[in-house]
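Late entry, evening session. Most of the bench is empty. Finally got around to the prediction I had been postponing all week. Sequence below, unchanged from the version circulated by S.P.
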Amino acid sequence: MVLEGIAKKSFIVVGRVGMDLTPSPANTRTKDSDTMMVAMGGSSANIAAGLCKLGCKASLVTSVSDDAVGWFCLQQLDDYGVGRNHVKKITGEYRTSLAVYETRIDDHQSVIYRNNAADFQMNVADVEAVDYTQFGALITAGTVFAAEPSRTAAFRAFELARKAGIPIIFDVDYRPYSWPSAEVAAEVLSRAGALSDIIVGNDEEFGFMAGDINKGMEHARKLAQTNAEIVVYKMGPEGAITFTGDQTIRSGIYPVTAVKPTGAGDSFMAGFISSLADGRAMPESILRGSACASIVVAKPGCAPAMPNSAELEDFLSSHPGPTQNQQEPTCT
C-alpha cells in the first residue's frame, strides 16, 4: 500500500509555511548585515516545494496570518506550484512564523519567532475539509504536533488518511523551542511515530523518542518491525541506515562544501519520496535524497536551494559519488 500510494505522485502535506530572512552575501553575520534574502520557509512547505520541483504534486494544509507576511507565503506557494486550497488566513494576534538564518557554518545563528504562531491554529475542521482520497500519501513534520489545536488536528488528519487508505509519512523534526517540555514532546512524537508508515529522523531524534541517545537505533529498528514499513535513521556525515522489511540498508552521503547547516532534512525527504514515486529502488532513492540534502546545504536558502529534476541529475552526474566507505548502499 505504501509504495502504491507514493507512486501516485500526489501528496497532502500538513504543517507550517513561514518567511525566512538570510543575511547576504553568504558568510555575513546578522549583526553586520544591511541586505537580506527573503524566501519561503517552514519544514512542511519546504518539503512540498521540493516535491513539486522534482515532478510531483503537493498541497499544503496550514494557517497563515492575514497580513503582509502571510500574503508573502501564499504567493511563494503559488510560485512553487504548491496547492493552497487548504491554507487558511486568520486574523487576530496570531502571526506567521519568521526565521533569520545565517549562511555560515562557524558560529551559525538561527533565530526563529514562533510566539502565537498562526500555523498552530490549524484545527480539526481544517483537516476534515480535505478529501484524502484525492492524494496518494500524507506527509507531515513533528512541529505540527507541538501545540494545540494543531496537535489534535494533525492526529485527526492521520485518522482520516488511514480511513482513506493512504500511507502516512512522518519526519520527526524535533524542535525543542516549539514544545512545552521534553516529556510532552517525547510522548507525542512517539505516538505519531506509532501511527506512521514511513518515519524519517536523525540519530538524536530517535534517541530522544527512546529516552536515551544510545537506544535510538534500536528504537528505529523496533518501529520498522512493528507499524512502519520504512524507517530512515540519519546520522549526518556518517550517512544513514534504513530499515525496511527484512532489509537493513546502509548508505553514505555526497560530500560538499557546506555553507549552512539548515534545510538538509526537508530536501532529503523531497528527494527520497519523489524517487520512490518514480519507481526507483530503495537504495537508489535513499542516495538521491542524500544528494538533495547535499545540494541544499551548499547554497543559501532552503526552498530556493532545493534542486529540480535537471539540477539533481547534473549533480549526480558530476559528483564523484557518495562517501568512499559506502560507495554502494549495502543491504543485509
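Two things to note before I forget:
Confidence is low (pLDDT under 50) at residues 324-328.
The chain has one domain: 2-14+45-61+121-331.
Will write this up properly tomorrow.
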